[in-house]
Amino acid sequence: MHHYVNHLTQIDHSVVKAIFHFLNSGAKNIVAVVPFEKKFKTFSNKIKANFINNKLDEVKYIFYSNWFNILCVEFFIRHHFKIYEQQLNAVIEKVRSNFKTLPANFQGKVDFPVNDPAYFEKLSKLIIPKCQKNDPRYMLTAKAIILFLFLNGKFGRTTPKDPPSIFNQLEKSP
Fold first, then answer.
1. Residue 82 lies in a domain
2. Would 1 be classed as within a structural domain?
3. Contacts of 109 (CB under 8 A, 6+ apart)
4. Model confidence over 112-154: pLDDT tens digits?
């Protein structure tokens, strides 16, 4: 019984490990790079809705410095969603439930401004397998996953001008 209950409270890190291996193997040869500045315009309203003006440059730099990895995460999820859907949903739920408890989220809601860019890193640490906690490559992978989830409306304030979430498309596909 104890093993079963413990299993339910832990997320399955297989999707994080699979994305990590994808990023660190052949992703450079597969993923088409969309120029950051061009794409940034599509989600700049989301950034403004989640951060105060003096944090906007820092947040933009976080996305810029992780841009290729975010694109790789998107590519991986687009092509492997059905295989990892349950594990991905568990990761999303863990991120969302922890986001609601962060100090700057005083309303305890998922659709609430992120406010502090440091929360991206804090949430990233939640999804790294324990045996990989000290591996900076896993931290970069986890951060790209968190940034990708943010861009696709899984936590943080959303706006009517946000681009459609990839998850809406993937959940509807057969």
1. yes
2. no
3. 100
4. 999 999 999 999 999 998 889 999 999 999 999 999 999 999 9
